[in-house]
Design goal:
The protein is α+β, with helices and mostly antiparallel strands. It has six domains: 4-128, Rossmann fold (3-Layer(aba) Sandwich), CATH 3.40.50; 138-185 and 461-569, Orthogonal Bundle (Topoisomerase I, domain 2); 189-250 and 387-456, Topoisomerase I, domain 3 (Distorted Sandwich), CATH 2.70.20.10; 257-382, Topoisomerase I, domain 4 (Orthogonal Bundle), CATH 1.10.290.10; 576-620, no CATH class; 675-748, no CATH class. 34% of the residues lie in helices and 25% in strands. The protein has 20 helices and 36 strands. Strands 9-10-16-15-12-17 form a six-stranded antiparallel barrel. A five-stranded antiparallel beta sheet has the order 35-34-33-32-36, with no helix packed on it. A hairpin with a 3-residue loop joins strand 33 and strand 34 (727-731). Helix 17 (526-540) packs antiparallel against helix 18 (546-565).
């Protein structure tokens, strides 16, 4: 009897599924897409109802031939590509190719690659969802029209090779707007006043001035702060309020794609792209000893926090057995749907609670294990009782001044025994209360000291990958499958740089964004892009037609295109800045233009005169002469900038190509021979610090090394870190001891 054919996307998934289904099935992999839009033309016919022209991807002919051959011999064909819109589109393309050979085609969704998950998927085989296919086609068509019609506008006005994307350009807009906010920010001075009090000879505790004459505190100068401090010292204080009440903090919901990317960035330092690559492996299957390949997590592209009843029950049993009955919540948390959720999948969770991180750690590489632990802990915590605190508030009044001190103590850990999603767990949650507990209204408070402190308002923080994804999700832009690509694309295009996890808009990114916002303000707006995302959802659920959604997009889009074309010559001229500098070859004025490596000076007599120079301001920004003599030719060594960061090169280049790494001035703490140099990763251009003797020495750090011996272990160095809550501080990479970042510390 002939066997049935199952087609999946990845070879590793094929191996896992084959183990579960046995000898009556053959499992083959398409290795991703088999068709795509053509590279040489738009491939979207706007005159014929936005029909698209797909063609077989170069190099996929052999894969397609194998699939056709196996389909011809098979009794039935089950297409089990990923359970999302993109997977549905791949399934449709495969079906088109094999339908004439074998018409017995069914669609299968594997939401987890486990024995139960595969069996459930096979039992619920169905037809390909044409609504989801058309929704994906609409996304591709929109993206192609933008890319192939807006990008040439950028080429013609700036320079060839630049590009624009429908969703990525909105992400760039958010980053650029934040950059401009930061640059335009003017700090404002303000002062706070802290008092130290004692009640009934208690240990002194700190309290903050909260009210003056019943109104909010607004102190804007040192003179005013000192005047209030003197008045406070002259007042007698007494307790006006003392509360101690229990408060609960509920467990976080299990991960969806965006929250997984955000937490993996915050807790593990992973990029969105790295997180999704690791999650894909955990989903497709990992070799677990005698069990063979096992899918460890459910599908990782989801915007729903829904959980299956079986998963919730398993979690309840695990929590009760591991932590005790009191850690089980009164009501089990399971069926819950996010506001914007498509709800096509469950939340991201472990597939089998028998596969604890401790059990499988020997089968996973380090980063995969760290991500699995994060997913495991978040899921278990989501099914645990709330944490309970004693919230203590003490207020003291003296004349017109009111001070307040708050504290809280953990009385029941609840889910905090497993997972804490707060940015920084406060000291009060870790230690007994420092406030006196035997206090009555009217008790005298002894003032032990007054401390006025100067502050300045701070600009909004730059986006990180995690906070940008959070912003995009809140604005309704993008979907789980697109977040990682959105971030990596704006970095790859050099519109954005990533430094110490923060996203900085480059001059190029700012200029491109200015053009896009000036001539395509509606198309690249947050509201219009979010509206299109919602319309794509209506196509996917069958409520709206493909042609209607495409027209809603195309009509305002083509109007913007036509308007921009009429302005191209004017725009190009406006981007050229005439300078007072004279060309030293022909005597004509030099102008500033845009090129592949940024802005540069060129002769206005081009093309007759092709003289070019670097911008003087950029030369001044980085001193060129280092004082080091080239050992090859005797010339001056100069600081230069290349693809992977700064380096020292000979001033006689190209006659002499001698180069050296640019040292931070400190020796490698690992080998003590090489120097620590600043480098950039090849793809993401992310700054890191490594040894100049690589590959002989493999020292590398995302954080700046600081020469300072740790007081608590044998580490010869610490690293510099910066967080919103703590500012800049030093951390030992070995024992995690924290130190204050002093001006004397030698930082690379």
């Amino acid at each position: 009897m002939s066997k049935s054919l199952i087609i999946v996307e990845s070879p590793s998934k094929a191996k896992t599924i084959n183990k579960y289904l046995g000898k009556d099935y053959i499992v083959e992999a398409s290795v991703g897409h088999i068709k795509n839009l053509p590279k040489s033309k738009i491939g979207v016919d706007v005159q014929e109802a936005f029909a698209v022209s797909y063609e077989t991807i170069a190099g996929k002919e052999k894969v397609l031939s194998i699939l056709k051959s196996k389909a011809e011999e098979a009794k039935e064909v089950f297409i089990a590509t990923d359970p999302d819109r993109e997977g549905e589109a791949i399934a449709a393309h495969i079906a088109e190719e094999i339908r004439d050979i074998n018409p017995h085609i069914k669609r299968v969704l594997f939401r987890e690659i486990t024995e139960n998950g595969v069996r459930e998927g096979m039992e619920n085989a169905h037809k390909i969802n044409t609504h989801m296919v058309m929704s994906q086609q609409a996304r591709r068509a929109m993206d192609r029209l933008v890319g192939y019609m807006v990008s040439p506008f950028i080429w013609r006005t700036m320079y060839y090779g630049l590009s624009a994307g429908r969703v990525q350009s909105v992400a760039l807009k958010l980053i650029c707007e934040r950059e401009l906010e930061i640059k335009a920010f003017q700090p404002e001075e303000y002062w706070t006043i802290e008092g130290r009090f004692s009640v009934h000879d208690s240990e002194p505790f700190a309290a903050k001035l909260m009210k003056i004459d019943g109104g909010d505190v607004t102190i804007t100068s040192e003179f005013e702060a000192n005047r209030h401090a003197e008045n406070i010292r002259a007042r007698s204080f007494s307790v006006s309020r003392f509360d101690s009440k229990p408060v609960k903090r509920n467990a976080p919901m299990p991960f969806i794609t965006s929250t997984l990317q955000q937490e993996a960035s915050r807790k593990l330092g992973f990029s969105a792209k790295r997180t999704m690559a690791l999650a894909q492996k955990l989903y497709e299957g990992v070799e677990i000893g005698k069990e063979g390949a096992v899918g460890l997590i459910t599908y990782m592209r989801t915007d729903s926090t829904r959980l299956s009843a079986d998963a919730v029950l398993s979690a309840k049993e695990y929590v009760q057995a591991t932590y005790g009955h009191e850690y089980v919540p009164e009501k089990l948390r399971g069926v819950k749907k996010g506001k914007m959720a498509q709800d096509a999948h469950e939340a991201i969770r472990p597939t089998d609670l028998g596969h604890t991180p401790e059990v499988i750690k020997k089968y996973l590489e380090k980063d995969a294990l760290r991500l699995y632990e994060l997913i495991w802990n978040r899921f278990i915590a989501s099914q645990m009782a709330p944490a309970v605190f004693d919230q203590i508030t003490l207020e003291l009044e003296g004349g017109e001044y009111l001070f307040r001190s708050s504290d809280r103590m953990v009385t029941f850990k609840g889910f905090l025994a497993v997972y804490d999603d707060a940015d920084d767990e406060t000291e009060a949650e870790q230690n007994p209360s420092k406030l006196p507990m035997t206090v009555s209204i009217g008790d005298p408070g002894s003032l032990k000291g007054v401390n006025p402190e100067q502050h300045f308002t701070e600009p909004p923080p730059r986006f990180t990958e995690a906070s940008l994804v959070k912003e995009l999700e809140a604005d309704g832009i993008g979907r789980p499958s697109t977040y990682a690509m959105i971030v990596s694309t704006v970095i790859d295009r050099k519109y954005v740089e990533q430094k110490e996890r923060k996203l900085f808009a480059t001059d190029l990114g700012l200029q491109v964004n200015t053009l896009l916002q000036q001539y395509f303000p509606e198309i690249f707006s947050v509201s219009f892009t979010a509206k299109m995302e919602k319309e794509l959802d209506t196509v996917a659920n069958g409520k709206e037609q493909y042609i209607k959604v495409m027209n809603d997009f195309y009509n305002p889009f083509i109007d913007s295109i036509n308007h921009s074309k009429s302005k191209e010559s004017e725009i190009k001229k406006s981007l050229i800045e005439v300078t007072d500098e004279v060309c030293d070859l022909c005597g004509k004025k030099m102008v500033i233009k845009w090129g592949r490596n940024g802005r540069f000076m060129a002769c206005s007599g081009y093309p007759k005169c092709k003289n070019t120079k670097s911008l003087p301001g950029e030369l001044e920004a980085m001193p060129q002469i280092t004082g080091v003599v080239c050992e090859k030719c005797g010339g001056d060594m100069m600081v230069k900038v290349g693809r992977f960061g700064s380096f020292i090169g000979c001033s006689n280049y190209p006659k002499c190509d001698n180069t050296k790494p640019l040292s931070t001035g400190i020796k490698c703490p690992t080998c003590v021979e090489g120097d620590i140099i600043e480098r950039k990763t090849k793809k993401r251009k992310r700054v890191f610090y490594g040894c100049s003797r690589y590959p002989d020495c493999d020292f590398a750090s995302w954080d700046k090394p600081v020469i300072r011996k740790c007081d608590h272990c044998d580490s010869k160095y610490v690293v510099e870190k910066t967080t919103k809550a703590k500012g800049t501080f030093l951390v030992c990479p070995v024992c995690k001891s924290v130190y204050e970042a002093t001006p004397q510390a030698k930082v690379g």
